[in-house]
Amino acid sequence: MQPQFFNVINDELRGSEKSHTVTNPRTEDELWACPVATNEDFEDAVAAAQKAFLTWGKSTVAERQTTLVKMAEVIKEHAGELADILSKETGKSAILAGIDVQASIAQCLYYSKTALEDEVQYEDEHQRVVATHVPLGVVAAIAPWNFPMILSNLKVVSSLITGNCVIVKPSPFTPYAVMKWCELSRGILPPGVFQVLNGGADLGALMTLHPGIAKISFTGTIATGKRVMAACAKTLKKVTLELAGNDACIVCPDADLDKTIPSVASGGFFNAGQVCVASKRIYVHESIYDEFLDRLVAEVEKSYSVQEDANAPSVFGPLDNKMQFDVVKGIIEDCRTNGYNIVKGGSTATASKTGKGFWLEPTIVSKPPEDSWLVKEEQFGPILPILSWSDEDDVIRRSNLANAGLGASVYSKDLAQAERIARRLESGSVWINQFERPNFGAFFGGMKDSGFGGEMGKQGLLSYSYTQALHFPK
Ligand code: NAD
């Protein structure tokens, strides 16, 4: 039987006169009809959330923690079904889709044990000032397509544990798993506390303007993030922007290449490079450049080939959608037109044996100019520039682009040198001798153009709350 999908409003399942389908990027099969929320659906969801907030906003942390455990149980119970839907809508292998679902369970459980506590901020013989954390109201969570469950789940659980109600809008490229998850979660929370609406930029824009919404938590491109922030200014909404990164990866002359090469290959080609913190520009010390390049090409050939079977044990995959497929093909074409040294890959033809799907083979480009499209902009796909460096100050300056504020990595056996470089990189997270993997417990946010505020860890919950100072006399 074909699965069915619904907007979830006030715990009711709603269809719509308008629907769209998503193309499975692995096979180009058309998937299932997905209802597009109308303006009326959106207004109803906001009204239901506002009503629910009157009681949910007063719930205790212990009550919210219990519900997060139940949310984790529901995902666990339906993990196979959710991963299967997610694999089809994203084109991810079963392994990769499983990671998205399992990490969502872990995230629910992490936040079921992590909450903001009251804190004495100041005390003397006359007064005591206590900081407490008050929910904001209704949060709208606007998500991208690359990790649909994890990224929506993060916003949902952060909202819930802090006492907010949340309406999640997944990307129209990947709406299904998130809609099914919300449908399956009905009954755990009071109606109106957790709702889902499917729609595109129009619905997202409406959310950013609605006076009944207190906060937008947005993950996506820098360009859309700027639009979101401008729109939110009209009603002074709280805003968190998790935006693109153009992550630099610096390989020092003493790096342990046996460990560094597989790690850099994962950093660049895991999920075909469609990771916000993927390694997007590799800076290798000139003294080891040739050996590094040869060995990286061999590693990528061995471990990141196109495998059409979704059950093959692969963490490589197709581009998620035709739009992104065309963007990455444009970057490859630009490298070819400009005569850059493509040492692996370089074809813009669909790389699957069937000729179907948004597949591109992994591509490696040696020393393209610093002002090339591939180096200056986030590629978000399986094409990696390998650059060289010889002076520490110079490589740090080249790494610190305005759009490179999200993540970075440094490889060196000399941990003092690695830490010295890491502390000078203008990025929200820096990984040493490992590729970029966010950690539930660690605050995650971008510097400069890569974001505004952040999420994850205990600190991430502050952006889902007002901090109220209570001044007590003594
Ligand atoms: P996008 O900006 O095109 O869309 C993101 C979401 O915003 C979608 O749900 C979309 O429908 C919605 N939207 C579009 N226009 C809107 C508007 N005017 N107002 C409100 N909402 C609007 O991004 P994308 O292509 O889906 O995602 C890929 C990008 O996301 C990459 O640049 C990647 O680096 C970034 N990303 C960042 C993080 C992070 O945590 N920093 C994580 C994952 C992805």
TrEMBL record:
Keyword Glycosyltransferase: no
Ranges of residues in domain Aldehyde dehydrogenase: 17-468
Gene3D superfamilies per UniProt: Aldehyde Dehydrogenase, Chain A, domain 1, Aldehyde Dehydrogenase, Chain A, domain 2
UniProt catalytic activity: an aldehyde + NAD(+) + H2O = a carboxylate + NADH + 2 H(+)
E.C. no: 1.2.1.3
SUPFAM superfamilies: ALDH-like
Gene Ontology MF terms in the entry: aldehyde dehydrogenase (NAD+) activity
Pfam families registered for this protein in UniProt: Aldedh
Keywords of the record: Oxidoreductase
KW Zinc (keyword) present: no
InterPro entries, A to Z: Ald_DH/histidinol_DH (IPR016161), Ald_DH_C (IPR016163), Ald_DH_CS_CYS (IPR016160), Ald_DH_N (IPR016162), Aldehyde_DH_dom (IPR015590), LUC3-like (IPR044086)
Superkingdom in the source lineage: Eukaryota
PROSITE patterns: ALDEHYDE_DEHYDR_CYS (PS00070)
Membership in a protein family: Belongs to the aldehyde dehydrogenase family.
Stored PANTHER family: ALDEHYDE DEHYDROGENASE-RELATED
Protein name stated in the entry: aldehyde dehydrogenase (NAD(+))
